[in-house]
Amino acid sequence: MHPDSTIDISTKTFPGKEQYRFSIIIPTWNNLPMLKLCISSILKNSRFRHQIILHINEGKDGTQEWAEANSIDYSYSPSNVGVCLAVNTAASLAATDYIVYLNDDMYACPDWDYYLWEAVERQPDNLFFLSSTSIEPRDVHKKVAIAPYDFGRTPDSFREEELLLRYADLPMEDWSGASWPPNVVHRSLWEQVGGYSLEFFPGFYSDPDFSMKLWKVGVRRFQGVTKSRVYHFLEMSTAKVNHKVVKKGWRIFLKKWGITSRVFYKYYLKMGKKSQQELAQPNSIAYHLNRLICIFK
What we know:
Elements lengths: L9 E3 L10 E7 L2 H14 L5 E7 L5 H7 L3 E5 L4 H10 L6 E4 L4 E3 L3 H10 L6 E8 L24 H7 L8 E2 L6 E4 H7 L12 H11 L4 E12 L11 H14 L3 H8 L16 H12 L1
């Protein structure tokens, strides 16, 4: 479904949000077994209480009824509206000042929220973007994930006990380049940049675009928190999408910002490098050369 089409979206919230620390938004698309595991891990392994907000795309598998039965806040669209409109709509229901974006194919490890909150409290102001660290079953060359450590690819094959024994000891340092979920941003920044950009429907390259929008309004702290960990099953929903749209998203980003996402991640966010307090506008010869190459692309 194209984002410019007429969309019928409904929402439902439940009382009891006064003591929540984060508002966790989770877009989901007919992925109920994985979603149940995701939310179960949040409830079981979080140090604090959080507001959980779903955006339910289609929900042909009973997701909406399950959310109702468990008093989980949600927005709903009868068709797949893509990731960007989904997270924006869910975020409009946030009751806290801190919006966490998390995928439905993630399992939150113990105290993931405590360590993320610790990092938030160390910030001198609200100009930050922080990410938890993903443990992934295969190496997809992200540079910021702990991989490959395969604890299962589906809820049925998931080896939870083994993960819980090993997750904290897997080697990783705090890193630079926060962009992918799970991430947290102050609500004021989310509203300032207008959330995620609908032109990236169904969602490919919307992550670097959101980070670039934050950069443009002065954010220079894009930090990955190694102690805050999730297990990421990888692309349970995006695997359903025709991957020809990936190249379309790449071109939209290039046309919009004048550089590729690779250049942005490497020279602006220092993706995968040791965490830095404050990033700076790139000014190296290599950066300017790559920017010229982008112009010809």
